[in-house]
Design the sequence.
C-alpha cells in the first residue's frame, strides 16, 4: 500500500516505514505529523485517485529530526565588467518516518501513543528552584611584626 501526498509544494510517493526528507515542518523529534493533502492511495483492493484530494484520507508520520541541506553556492560573474557575486544557501529540512496511511478519516495509532505520554516529569523538575550558591569566605591574613 502506498500513497501520494502533497507538502511543501512538492508531491511524494510514500509507504509505511518510509523515511522522507521534506521542507521544514514545525515540531521536535518524536512529534506526530498528519498530512491531509492525499492525492492518491493504492492498496490490494485497488487505487483511489482524488479530484484533486481524497476526502477524509490522511497520512500519519513521526518527525525523526530537523536538519539542513548541503550548502548550494550561486556564483555569477559578468565578463569584462569587473563584477561578480557569490551567495550560499542551506535549506531547512525535516526528516519524517511515515507510520501509517489512513483512508476515510480513521484516527492514527501514533497520535494516541503521543497523547498517553505523561508530561508530569518535566513539569516537576521545572518547579523545583535551585539553591543559591554560597560565597566563599576569605581568610584574613595575619601580618607578623618583625
Sequence:
Amino acid at each position: 500500500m502506498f500513497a501520494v501526498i502533497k507538502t511543501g509544494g512538492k508531491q511524494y510517493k510514500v509507504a509505511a516505514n518510509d523515511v522522507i526528507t521534506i521542507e521544514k515542518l514545525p515540531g521536535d523529534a518524536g512529534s506526530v505529523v498528519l498530512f491531509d493533502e492525499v492525492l492518491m492511495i493504492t492498496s490490494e483492493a485497488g487505487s483511489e485517485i482524488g479530484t484533486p484530494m481524497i476526502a477524509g484520507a490522511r497520512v500519519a508520520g513521526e518527525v525523526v529530526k530537523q536538519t539542513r541541506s548541503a550548502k548550494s553556492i550561486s556564483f555569477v560573474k559578468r565578463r569584462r565588467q569587473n563584477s561578480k557575486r557569490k551567495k550560499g544557501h542551506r535549506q531547512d529540512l525535516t526528516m519524517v518516518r511515515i507510520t501509517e496511511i489512513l483512508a476515510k478519516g480513521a484516527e492514527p495509532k501514533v497520535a494516541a501513543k503521543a497523547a498517553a505520554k505523561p508530561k508530569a516529569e518535566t513539569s516537576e523538575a521545572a518547579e523545583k528552584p535551585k539553591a543559591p550558591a554560597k560565597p566563599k569566605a576569605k581568610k584574613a591574613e595575619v601580618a607578623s611584626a618583625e
Observations:
- Strands lie at 2-7, 10-15, 19-23, 32-35, 38-42, 47-49, 58-68, 72-78, 83-89, 92-102.
- The helical segments are 109-116, 120-127.
- The first helix runs from residue 109 to 116.
